């Protein structure tokens, strides 16, 4: 029998490389670990978004762009507001022009005017990164350029991201995009630079109607936490199993 | 045993050695598993501080009141009290240090964000006094008749 | 303050109805090319292994060629990724800090291992040739020949024993490398399929069948490409020899050999039928279970992508080549036409998966149309447009031409190789 040692070495390497992926599924996604890690931190941030209060003024989008240096006229945004109009004929009309950056000042959608008399129901839904507990975007990053902090905030390392867009494809919510100047993946950072100084995220501060709030789920006295734990809240796209941490009040079943 | 068959193995080990050496040289020292687990916590630790150091732009009402007491007082007593100054005036950043004067945006579009009549039933929008843009003092700035800091009449 | 910025994807994406603001076709033509090229790599290698491992003697000539072609294709598999990355200078990071929960990280490791396996197998196959060439070139003059001698010397890595026992050891080792290489080639392309199949956010991609479909169609494309290149090269060599009034006997002017083609074609048909069966199974299941995404998927597949899927891929890429290959009286010319259609069909499959998966919005309420940049006017439209794609297609042939100077793989002039 010739070459048995080399044979073994080559086999061992390729088998190991190939086994890592299926075996990792059992080890790396255990809920026990998740609970343990969260127990080590004194904060777990989440959004509380009340669609009953949102009027679609778009100030949050404008504030977010200015605060976070996302080019104002670029058609990408860290957070956005969607408008839903339900008309008498049973149609649902949805839009988000420039992410709602300029608010909604008329009933024109895709070049057509919607007559207010035809409208049965209409509302606005602010959206952004959900800072999920099981973020699929972090799972698929090939190089460790995106990660979740101990407070649950999902961030991107601009120095390391190589711009493959796998995380952008993996996000079911469309929260990620390529930063047009930095040329790396970008998304809502929960205004990490502000909350770590005790300030509120720019979108929360700019909302005059209290439609956007944040909660520290580990603080039982936080009023927003009390709402999340005692009132009926919903999340987007629950079936994907990402455990999103943007909780909505008044979320309609037809919201995409 | 013909030992020449092992020569490619030495080359392979050399290549793998080069890759590992490259890693030692090129990968930052603070790169590793930080936090929860490998899946969600594999990153360069320094990135967290990078984000904490990101400059803050919006300062909030409390910083405006230090110099602009009158306008803030007016605004706080009005129906616009919930609106942040910087919503309309733009982020203060380090005003007045770096930015001498902030924009005073008096355009119609700014006000129409909330005050355009859309006619949506069951929307909070309905609780805001609104105009039909086409029908109310067209093309004129709203601020010619309404004081944005204290809009009631 | 106006900044110079480029929104990646905005240039070639046209949105229709409601699409999330950040959605664009981020994975465009280069991401179509990449699984196509890795498929050719894997397939060419498996074809070579048919001879080395499974002893399909008729495939001997084609086997040598497909092995070298597999090597020529390997760097080209990575080229589309380099052109696609927003930060190409960081392209080595998957090897330096691989995040193994990502299919792309595993890919970096597997392609390195696979590359080493292919190189090693080629070394075992050509080592005797290198040693004999060093002897032959001793008697030649000129700088070029001296250079070639140096190259061959280096390539032997100090193993110059060409005794019978040594050559036998080479043959056994090549066989082992081919055997180890088959599962590695499968992983190489299985991971490409896993890259798509594991993205739960994409309603078209998420499927456990994706890795299997990708591997099968990769083998199909690899066999087809090798057959096509083999036929073209052998027939044109024979053509030129006849044109120049060759002194060779008529039976020595060989074009593509019938036995080789027939054997390869049989394998091609088997894999083709397997691949199309799984794809149709996937489609049937989606329609039957009718998840939330089914409405928009159906409208994309039966509407704007009907031509791409059912006409170009299924009919031109599968049905017609099957007919051409299975109907009696198959000629070399008909086979060449069939494999050309097969290659086109495999390309369309990659297109329909990558672009098709981005043809609808995550909102399931809007569409995105891909308008591939033809005339480049910026780095982005050059790299991720028709020009970039053509560069990727041309590259393996250029590399093969260079490799052929040191690793000749066609025809009978190759003395001293397995």
Structure report:
The complex is a heterotrimer of chains A (256), B (153) and C (418). Chain A is 27% helix and 20% strand. Chain A is an alpha+beta fold. The longest helix of chain A has 24 residues, at 4-27. Chain B is mainly α. Chain B folds into 3 domains: 28-55, no CATH class; 58-104, no CATH class; 106-143, no CATH class. The mean pLDDT of chain B is 90. Chain C has a single domain (13-404), classed as Formate dehydrogenase/DMSO reductase domain (Formate dehydrogenase/DMSO reductase fold), CATH 1.20.1630. A two-stranded antiparallel sheet of chain C has the order 1-2. Chains in contact: A-B, A-C, B-C.
Give descriptors for this structure.
heterotrimer; A: 256 residues; alpha+beta; Alpha-Beta Plaits; three-stranded mixed β-sheet; 8 helices; B: 153 residues; mainly alpha; 3 domains; 7 helices; 2 strands; elongated
Q: Look at the structure and give the CATH class of chain C.
A: Mainly Alpha
Helix-strand category of chain B: mainly alpha
Name the beta content range of chain C: under 5%
- The ordered string of helix (H) and strand (E) elements of chain C is EHHHHHHHHHHHEHH
Q: How far is the N terminus from the C terminus of chain C?
A: 67 Å
Q: Numbering strands along the chain, what is their spatial order in the largest sheet of chain C?
A: 1-2
What fraction of residues of chain B sit in β-strands? under 5%
The percentage helix of chain B is 25-40%
Question: How many structurally independent domains of chain C?
Answer: 1
What's the N-to-C terminus distance of chain B? 101 Å
CATH third-tier fold name of chain C? Formate dehydrogenase/DMSO reductase fold
In total, the number of strands of chain B is 2
Structural class of chain C: mainly alpha
Measured on Cα atoms, how large is the radius of gyration of chain C? 23 Å
Overall 3D form of chain C? globular
Tell me the major beta sheet of chain C: 2 strands, antiparallel
* Rg estimate of chain B, integer Å: 30 Å
């Amino acid at each position: 029998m010739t070459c048995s040692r080399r044979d073994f070495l080559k086999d061992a390497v390729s088998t190991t490389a190939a086994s890592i992926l299926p075996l990792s599924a059992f080890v790396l996604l255990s809920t026990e670990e998740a609970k343990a890690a969260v127990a080590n931190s004194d904060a777990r941030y989440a959004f509380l978004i009340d669609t009953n209060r949102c009027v679609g003024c778009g100030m949050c989008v404008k504030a977010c762009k200015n605060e976070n240096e996302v080019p104002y006229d670029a058609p990408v945004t860290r957070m956005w507001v969607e408008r839903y109009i339900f008309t008498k004929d049973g149609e649902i009309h949805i839009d988000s022009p420039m992410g709602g950056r300029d608010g909604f000042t008329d009933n024109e959608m895709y070049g057509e005017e919607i007559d207010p008399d035809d409208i049965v129901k209409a509302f606005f839904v602010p959206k952004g990164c959900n800072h999920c507990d099981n973020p699929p975007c972090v799972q698929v990053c090939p190089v460790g350029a995106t990660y979740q902090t101990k407070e649950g905030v999902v961030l991107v390392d601009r120095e390391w991201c190589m711009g493959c867009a796998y995380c952008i494809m993996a996000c079911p919510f469309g929260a990620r995009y390529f930063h047009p100047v930095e040329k790396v993946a970008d998304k809502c950072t929960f205004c990490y630079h502000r909350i770590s100084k005790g300030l509120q995220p720019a979108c929360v501060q700019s909302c005059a109607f209290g439609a956007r709030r944040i909660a520290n789920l580990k603080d039982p006295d936080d009023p927003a936490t009390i709402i999340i734990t005692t009132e009926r809240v919903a999340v987007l796209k629950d079936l994907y199993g990402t455990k999103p941490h943007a909780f909505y009040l008044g979320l309609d079943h037809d919201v995409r | 045993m013909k030992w020449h068959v092992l020569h490619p193995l030495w080359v392979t080990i050399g290549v793998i050695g080069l890759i590992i050496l490259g890693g030692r040289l090129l990968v930052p020292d603070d790169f590793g598993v930080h936090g929860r687990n490998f899946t969600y916590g594999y990153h360069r630790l320094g990135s967290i501080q990078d984000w904490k150091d990101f400059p803050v732009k919006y300062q909030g009402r409390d910083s405006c009141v230090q110099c602009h007491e009158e306008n803030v007082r007016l605004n706080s007593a009005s129906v616009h009290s919930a609106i942040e100054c910087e919503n309309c005036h733009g982020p203060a950043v380090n005003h007045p240090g770096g930015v001498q004067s902030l924009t005073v945006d008096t355009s119609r579009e700014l006000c129409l964000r909330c005050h355009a009549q859309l006619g949506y039933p069951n929307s909070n929008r309905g609780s805001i006094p609104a105009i039909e843009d086409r029908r109310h003092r067209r093309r004129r700035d709203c601020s010619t008749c309404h004081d944005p800091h204290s809009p009631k009449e | 303050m106006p900044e110079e910025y480029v929104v990646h994807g905005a240039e070639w994406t046209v949105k229709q109805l409601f699409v999330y603001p950040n959605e664009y076709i981020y994975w465009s033509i280069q991401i179509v090319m990449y699984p196509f090229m890795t498929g050719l790599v894997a397939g060419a290698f498996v074809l070579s292994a048919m001879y080395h491992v499974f002893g399909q003697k008729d495939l001997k000539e084609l086997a040598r060629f497909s092995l070298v072609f597999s090597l020529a294709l390997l760097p080209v598999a990575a080229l589309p990724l380099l052109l696609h990355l927003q930060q190409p200078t960081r392209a080595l990071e998957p090897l330096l800090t691989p995040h193994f929960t990502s299919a792309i990280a595993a890919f970096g490791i597997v392609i390195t291992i696979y590359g080493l396996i292919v190189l090693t197998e080629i070394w075992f196959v050509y080592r005797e040739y290198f040693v004999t060439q060093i002897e032959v070139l001793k008697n030649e003059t000129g700088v070029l020949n001296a250079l070639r001698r140096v190259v061959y010397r280096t390539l032997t890595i100090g193993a110059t024993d060409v005794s019978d026992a040594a050559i036998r050891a080479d043959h056994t080792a090549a066989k082992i490398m081919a055997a180890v290489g088959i599962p590695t080639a499968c992983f190489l392309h299985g991971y490409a399929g896993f890259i798509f199949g594991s993205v739960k956010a994409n309603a078209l991609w998420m499927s456990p069948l994706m890795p299997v479909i990708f591997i099968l169609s990769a083998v199909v494309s690899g066999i087809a490409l090798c057959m096509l290149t083999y036929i073209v090269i052998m027939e044109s060599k024979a053509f030129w020899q006849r044109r120049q009034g060759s002194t060779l006997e008529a039976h020595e002017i060989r074009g593509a050999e019938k036995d080789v083609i027939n054997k390869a074609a049989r394998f091609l048909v088997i894999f083709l039928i397997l691949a199309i069966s799984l794809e149709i199974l996937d489609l049937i299941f989606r329609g039957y279970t009718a998840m939330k995404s089914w409405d928009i998927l159906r409208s994309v597949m039966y509407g704007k992508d009907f031509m791409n899927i059912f006409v170009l891929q299924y009919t031109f890429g599968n049905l017609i080549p099957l007919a051409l290959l299975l109907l009696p009286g198959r000629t070399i010319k008909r086979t060449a036409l069939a494999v050309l259609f097969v290659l086109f069909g495999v390309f369309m499959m990659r297109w329909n998966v990558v672009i098709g998966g981005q043809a609808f919005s995550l909102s399931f309420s809007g569409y995105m149309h891909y308008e591939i940049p033809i005339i480049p006017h910026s780095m982005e439209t050059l790299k991720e447009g028709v020009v970039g794609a053509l560069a990727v297609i041309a590259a393996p042939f250029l590399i093969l031409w260079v490799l052929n100077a040191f690793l000749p793989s066609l025809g009978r002039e190759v003395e001293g190789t397995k």
